[in-house]
């Protein structure tokens, strides 16, 4: 009886299959449907919270409005520190969207029981649990800092590839490929590893041991969102200023 109850409750949460996808066929394209479903959930949640927080703006904020103003101030400070006080304002929406989407996506993997929702041929998971999502976010970041560099410096942007010496041209070009790779694989690897560890612990020791790991996973997920947004802002600032910004995290 106890074994049956254990299997009924915990096995759906502990099963984690890597590489199986629910495909949508759109014209000649084949896309991962489960990623779109969870991404739309995260986007709808963010839009809904933003709507409720700004529906009735008060001079003395409270509740959701206070939370949203705190988040905006935090993102504004992050962008200002990485991009610079004179140039940061146009980039606050982009950096903020990256941070909030990744943050909520990561936390949804820990707090929403996606595994209990069955879809044909696959299972639901956090959007950032899929390498396609993290690569797309990293490529958007690359396009953003290329655009920022060209907009600010024009053709002089290409001068960075031969600084401080033309000998470094291949290395500087290679750096533009390693940045999105590093961003995407770091985020994907950390989120996938966290969900795998929790799934295995729920399967082996289902009652108390997974709880500290899940709490640590929430903290790690928040840090990963912060690292991604900070590096994105740093790359944008680097492209406009023309000097290197060391990657960290």
Automatic annotation (TrEMBL):
One of its GO terms (molecular function) is proton-transporting ATP synthase activity, rotational mechanism. Keywords: ATP synthesis, CF(0), Hydrogen ion transport, Ion transport, Membrane, Thylakoid, Transmembrane, Transmembrane helix, Transport. The chain crosses the membrane at residues 31-53, 91-111, 131-150, 187-209, 215-236. It comes from Vasconcelosia minhoensis LEGE 07310. Pfam families: ATP-synt_A. The gene is atpB. It is a multi-pass membrane protein. The keyword Ubl conjugation does not apply. Belongs to the ATPase A chain family. This is ATP synthase subunit a. SUPFAM superfamilies: F1F0 ATP synthase subunit A (SSF81336). One of its GO terms (cellular component) is proton-transporting ATP synthase complex.
């Amino acid at each position: 009886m106890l074994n049956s109850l254990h299997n009924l409750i915990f096995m759906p949460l502990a099963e984690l299959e890597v590489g199986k996808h629910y495909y949508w066929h759109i014209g000649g394209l084949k896309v991962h449907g489960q990623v779109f479903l969870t991404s739309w959930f995260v986007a709808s949640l963010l839009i809904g919270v933003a709507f409720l927080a700004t529906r009735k703006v008060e001079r003395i904020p409270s509740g959701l409005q206070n939370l949203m103003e705190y988040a905006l101030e935090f993102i504004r400070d992050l962008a200002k520190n990485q991009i610079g006080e004179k140039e940061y304002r146009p980039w606050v929406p982009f950096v903020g969207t990256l941070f909030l989407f990744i943050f909520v996506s990561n936390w949804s993997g820990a707090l929403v029981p996606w595994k209990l929702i069955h879809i044909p041929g696959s299972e639901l998971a956090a959007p950032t649990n899929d390498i396609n999502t993290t690569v797309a976010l990293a490529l958007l970041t690359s396009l953003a800092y290329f655009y920022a560099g060209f907009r600010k410096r024009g053709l002089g942007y290409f001068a960075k590839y031969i600084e401080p010496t033309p000998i470094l041209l291949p290395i500087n070009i290679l750096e533009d490929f390693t940045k999105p790779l590093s961003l995407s694989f770091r985020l994907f690897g950390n989120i996938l590893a966290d969900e795998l560890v929790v799934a295995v612990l729920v399967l082996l020791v289902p009652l108390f041991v997974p709880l500290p790991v899940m709490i640590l996973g929430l903290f790690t997920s928040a840090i990963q969102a912060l690292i991604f947004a900070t590096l994105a802002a740093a790359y944008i600032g680097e492209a406009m200023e023309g000097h290197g910004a060391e990657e960290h995290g």
